[in-house]
UniProtKB/TrEMBL annotation:
GO terms for biological process: methylation. Keywords: Methyltransferase, Transferase. The keyword Iron does not apply. PANTHER family: TRANS-ACONITATE 2-METHYLTRANSFERASE-RELATED. Pfam families: Methyltransf_25 (PF13649). Residues 61-156 form the Methyltransferase domain. It comes from the Bacteria. GO terms for molecular function: methyltransferase activity. This is Class I SAM-dependent methyltransferase.
Amino acid sequence: MFSSHGPSVRELAVQGLSSVERGYDLLAPKFDHTPFRTPDRMLDAVEETLAQVAGGFDAGLDVCCGTGAGIDMLRRLCRGRVTGVDLSAGMLAEAGRQYGADAERVDFVRADARALPAALADTYDLAVSFGAFGHFLPKERPALFSGIHAALREGGVFAFPIGAPLPLGSPVWWATTGFDAAMRVRNAVWRPPFVMYYRTFPLGPVRADLRAAGFTVETVPLAHFGHRPDGTPHWRLLLARRT
């Protein structure tokens, strides 16, 4: 499915009936051949925007790093060490195969992003995350954001892209709404749960939770993706700074 190197429908079904951790362990060897990997176009847009608006960084942290799509970006933006954190041992193994030769600068830590290890506290100047927030329920955001806040040094930045609300009734709106409904039914009747939703990370509540965790929050347009008919950007880069 997706490509000749991607997972089959059967493999995706098995993964979808597993836990989040086990599902990604199974998907890891073929993950980079699916649309689930963060596109290079998005990574390039975030890197360029961060370089323009947030200045230089020393150490960088990729939260829910997966197979390491954001690691090259962090290596270019940061002068010092870069760390990837993920719950899935399978995803970290794939990332390690790609970046193991750069062990002096890059390391990987297996951890739940809702409970980052205390050893990471006050260590990083920049934290990023791509495509992972659907795996966290709204009630879990405070723990997630508090842990990232603790991992940053004073003045450190937590940055991630966030899309504009989908037009009500558009094909994409129906697709994501239908997917979320199907996942809620799946999780109501099947264990272990697989938490993955598309419509649980709206800007307003996310901004409020970040501020409650101790961040100041601003957004800047990702101009690479254009604007909607009302003039608002399709994508923004959210910059949450520890102050």
